[in-house]
Amino acid sequence: MAADETSKPVEVLVSVARDGGRTLGSQIETQLRDAVRAGRLRAGDRVPSTRDLAAQLGVARRVVVGAYGQLAAEGYLTLRQGARPCVAESARTPVPSPAQPDRAAATPRFDLRPRAPDVSGFPRTEWLRCLREALRTMTNADLGYGDPRGAEPLRWALSGYLGRVRGVAADPGRVVVTNGYSQAQGLVCRTLLARGARRIGFENPSHPEQRRIAERAGLTVVPVAVDDAGVRLDALERADVDALVLTPAHQHPTGAVLAGDRRRGLLDWLRRRDVVVIEDDYDAEYRYDRAAVGALQGLDPDRVVYAGSASKTLAPALRLGWLVVPPSMVAAVADEKDLADCGTAQIEQHAFAGFLSRGELDRHLRRMRARYRRGRDRLLAELAHALPEATVRGIAAGLHATVELPDGYDEHAILREARRRGIDLTTMHGFWIPPTAGPPTLLVGYAQLPVPTIPDAVRALADAVRASAR
Ligand SMILES: Cc1ncc(COP(=O)(O)O)c(C=O)c1O
Prior knowledge:
In the C-terminal section; belongs to the class-I pyridoxal-phosphate-dependent aminotransferase family. Residues 22-90 form the HTH gntR-type domain. Keywords: DNA-binding, Pyridoxal phosphate, Transcription, Transcription regulation. It comes from Virgisporangium ochraceum. The chain has three domains: 3-91, Winged helix-like DNA-binding domain superfamily/Winged helix DNA-binding domain (Arc Repressor Mutant, subunit A); 110-114 and 364-469, Aspartate Aminotransferase, domain 1 (Alpha-Beta Complex); 119-358, 3-Layer(aba) Sandwich (Aspartate Aminotransferase, domain 2). Helix 2 packs across helix 4 (61-73), helix 3 packs across helix 4 (61-73) and helix 8 (180-194) runs parallel beside helix 9. It is built from 16 helices and 16 strands. Strand 1 and strand 2 form a beta hairpin. The protein is α/β, with parallel strands linked by helices. Helices cover 41% and strands 13% of the residues. The protein has an eight-stranded mixed beta sheet with strand order 4-11-10-9-8-5-6-7, with helices on both faces. Strands 12-13-16-15 form a four-stranded antiparallel beta sheet, with helices on one face. Residues 115, 180-182, 207, 247, 252, 280, 282, 309, 311, 316, 321 line the site of pyridoxal-5'-phosphate.
C-alpha cells in the first residue's frame, strides 16, 4: 500500500471508560463490532492504525493490537502488514440505500418551469478564478464569522453595482448580504413584526412560498390586485397594510412591468400611509423592449427595502442575495441575520465581490441576455403558430411568458397531459391568493430550453393542451 494511504489519519467514534468495569480492550472491541453491525462502518472503510487509536484514546498500543486481533479473528477487520487496517469485506452488512430520486422523472424532456436561469451557461471558469483569488487573498481574520451584514468587499462591490445598474441608493453600510431573496424577505418580515407591523400586502397573484415566509414570520398576508400595468393603485388605497412586497421590474408571475404613472402613485401612497415596501427586484436584469427602468428604492430609500438575488442571474445554488435597508432598520435586520446563521458563507462572498469588481457579472449578463432574447422570440413565434387561441403576456422582461387560454381549459388536466409528454410545467393556479382564481394560464419559462429545442417543446405543449380538452 502506498505510504500516503497508510499515513492519512482516520478517526472513529470510540471512547473508553476507566471505571474498573470492562477491560479497555473489550470496550474497543465492542464499539467497533457494534459500529460494523449497525452499518456505521462499512466493508472497506478504513479504521485508525493501532498507533493512532492508542494515541487518541490514551491507552497502550498493545491494548488496541489485542482488540484488532480479536476483531480480525471474528471477521470484522482485515489486517495486513504495512496497510491501513480496514473493515473486512466479509463484514458487509446490508445497508438500506438512501432513496434515490427517479432520474428519469427528475430530468424532464422539456423543462418549462420559470424558476431557474440557464445554469448550463454558469461561468464556471470565471467563478473558479474568483474563488481561488478569494482564498489566496483572504486574511486569517476574514475566515472568522465577520460582520453579520456581510463581507465588506462584497458590500462595497454590491453598492457600486446596484447604484450603477439599478439606480439603487446603496451605501455599503446599509447592504446586508443574505442566503438568497427568500432569507432576505424573512429577515425583513421578522424585523417589521418586531416594530409592530401586523399586515403585509402581497400582489395577487404572487409566489406562494414568499407569502408563506411572511406568514411564518407572524404577519398576516393581505392580497392586493394587479393588472397588466402592475399593482393597482385603487387596490392599494383599499388595503389596510403596514408593509407591502412588490415585484415592480417584472411582476411575478404575470410578467407585467410596473407602469410609470403607477410608480408615481405608489410612491405617493407610501408616503401618505407611511408603509414600508420590500422591492423584490427579481428578473430586473432582463428587459428586452427598452432599457431597464431603475429600482423604486432609488426614489425613496427611506421607505423601500431593496432586495436582489443571484438566483436568476447566475444560479440558485449559490444562495446569494442582498438587501439595501433604510438606515432606521439596518441594526435590526443585521441582528436578525446574526441570529439566523451568523452570516453568509464568507469565501463565496469574497469570490462574488471579485466577480462583480472584475465586471464578470456584466459580461455574463450581456451574453445571457442575448441568448434569452433569442429564446423568447422563438417561443413567441412558435406559440402564435401552435396555440393561436392563447393570449401571451409578460414578455417585455424576465425569463417566462404567461400563456392565457380561453375559458373551458383545465390547468390540472393540462399539467397531467404535459407530464405524460415529459414536460415540466407551472400554471397560475397556486399563485392566486384564495379565494381568487383566474382564467386558465400557463407559465412558460424559456431559460432552461436550448433555443433549437423550442419548436419541439411548444408542439409537445400544444399537444398536451389539445389532449386535455378531449
Ligand atoms: C418572485 C421571486 N423572487 C425571488 C426569487 C429568488 O429567490 P432566492 O434568491 O431565494 O433563490 C424567486 C425564486 O423562485 C422568486 O420566484
